[in-house]
Every structure is written in C-alpha cells, then in structure tokens.
Amino acid sequence: MSARAEEAPAQWRILDTEDAAAVAEYERAFHRAFRDIRPDGLLRRLWQWDDAGARLASPVPYAEQRVYVEEDTAGQVRRGMAVNLTGRIQQAGRFGFTLPLHEPGSAEILVFFIDGAWSFAGTVGFWARCAADLQTLGLVIGYGTTAPRPLPIYRRFGAEVVERRELEGETRFLLRFDFRRSWFVPRREGGA
Description:
Elements: H1 3-6, E1 11-14, H2 20-34, H3 43-46, E2 48-50, E3 55-57, E4 65-71, E5 77-84, E6 106-114, H4 120-136, E7 141-146, H5 151-156, E8 160-167, E9 170-178
C-alpha cells in the first residue's frame, strides 16, 4: 500500500472505554499489532492475552486509562496509544521498573502500536495529537518500556533511556518522553 493510500483521511479520537464494542475493536487491533512479536516472551507477562478471542489488554483498568485510537476510512483501528492516568497499578513494574510518577505531570504510557501499513508521517501525526491532548490534562512526561528493536524509533520521538534491565535473556528499557518537546527528532546527516 502506498503512503498516500495509507494516509487517506483517518479518524483520531479518544476511545470511549465504557463502549464494549469500541473496546473490543481496540483490543483486537492491539492483539494484531503484537501477536507475531515473540508471543512466548516477556510480552506474555506484561499484558493480558486472550488468544482465543484475539484480544489484548493492559493490566491497568480502563477507568484509569486515556486511550487514543486512529481509524482508517473503513472504521478499523490502525493506531493506538494508552496512558495510565493514576499510576495506582504500574504496568512497568512487571519488568521490575519503578516509575517516578511523583514527578508533577507524569504518567505511564501503557502501549503505542500500529496495526497495518506503517507510515512515518502518519505515526508522527498520531503521536503529536496524543501528546497535545495529554498536555491539556496537565501531563507533560510519559514513561514507558520497550525492547531494543523499536528503541531507535522512540528516540526519534525524543525518548530518553532512564534504565535498562535484562530479564529472562531479554533486554528492556524504561523510557522517558517529554510531551512538550518536539515529537520528532530528525536523523543526523550520515547516521541514525
């Protein structure tokens, strides 16, 4: 699919987490985005997997989350981001990280995913809309975890590595994002 076709008008919105059908569609897209990424590794411990129903959820209750989605013109969720607003349950704790949520305006990023064709411009736009909305809630710092493979992409979104852990032979990083900063850091000439 071409970048132009992928960038057809998309609908960005805050998910109504009390709408069971909307939550189910989000969880199915979340599952599709992650099902092929070592599903027997650490991700099995991080999230709540329902393979029979092809759904995936964070351990944090939806009442404590702000969930963003972007749908394609057919109404399918293609991008998603969920943020833990209370910090009462810390998903990152499942990897042994302790989040400094005492920092004013901070929250935990539970997931950021793309289901389907990947477009850098579309992803940057989605991230920017989410970050702008989070700032209206007074949230300016986001903490999240990642594996090594997506780390370069997150660094282009301004992520700073706070901590690194080795768990069961896998590496995980705790990242810090400042939602007030530019959401895209261009590559330097001649390198990543």
